[in-house]
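Researcher: I'd like a structural prediction for the single chain below. Treat it as a standalone chain; there are no partners to consider.
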Amino acid sequence: PGYGIPTGNEVFVYRNHIESNIPDVDSPEVFGLNMNTDLQFRTSQAEDVFAIILETQPKGGGGGGGKSREDVVTELCIDLLVKLPKDFSGSEVRSSLQRIGNTKPINICFRQEMDVLQVTLNVVRETLKDLQLAVAGTIVMSELLSDALNAMFQAKVPQSWLKNAWFSPSVGAWFQILVNRYDQWDKWLKTGRPKSYWISGFSNGQGFLTAMLQEVTRSKQGWALDDVVMFTEVTKMEDFDVKEAAVDGIFVHGLFLEGCSWSKKDSQLIDSPPKALVAPLPVMYIAGVQKGQRKADYATYECPVYFRFDARKRGMTAAQPNFMFAPELRTVDPPSKWILRGVALLTYPGD
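Model: Treating it as a single chain, here is the predicted structure.
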């Protein structure tokens, strides 16, 4: 856009045209990208600069009467320990699973998700307690605790917490996700399956979707799991609008589009408005159908879903560890347009 071809046979004509009409920095639109791409690139550059500044600043104690690094981290540990959810009760988990059916695939996945979160709760609780003891001099400050001390002082997530867990660049956002995940499982334990699942809260989203396909297959006489594929459709509902659970499938929410937006009125992909890097997606209906039945009378774009908002670990195939699935989203534009723009569904846009 905005580029023209000069007319003439002399070199100076083309040289003058280049110097006067072609900008020093190309617009993202030249490469088929949205103008928001430039904003996202510059934001990423600024984040990298601030990260380097934080990593290279002195890590000694404070001076001039200010709080030291140890004081700041100790206060943070006390605050997080108060907010940290309690452990899951083994007896409550067993009785609840027996009540809702502990052999159903989705319930098996639910049990595994609680086990994974319980491991994370144990690691976080142990780190917060040991850090206070190490700062007080009661126990030795190990290398693991020292790394956690430095990370928390910079509002980052300790590496020991990220192991087998979700990615988040700040400890505050990471801890809130921990609380939200616990709330979803705790409510599921006490009141049964949710009407709409917060899919961003699953550590194994692929396993959860496979369990859904297994349940749908078992409910249909004569169906074989190998012949069942995933069918997706974006609804016009938000999660609070869902009053009844889906039949022959599930409702999920908590996904966000990057690189484009969604028109709830027309139920299709559209260009993002200026300065809007991500856009929430309404509730999605996911079900299992036989291969021959999955036919849409409109153009679709297979949009990859990533459960970790970290471009450095993003992959475009199912072999990548943070790839979940690829729902088909309705589009009036050629799918190649969204492929070129790298359109994807993410789970934590605030990260």
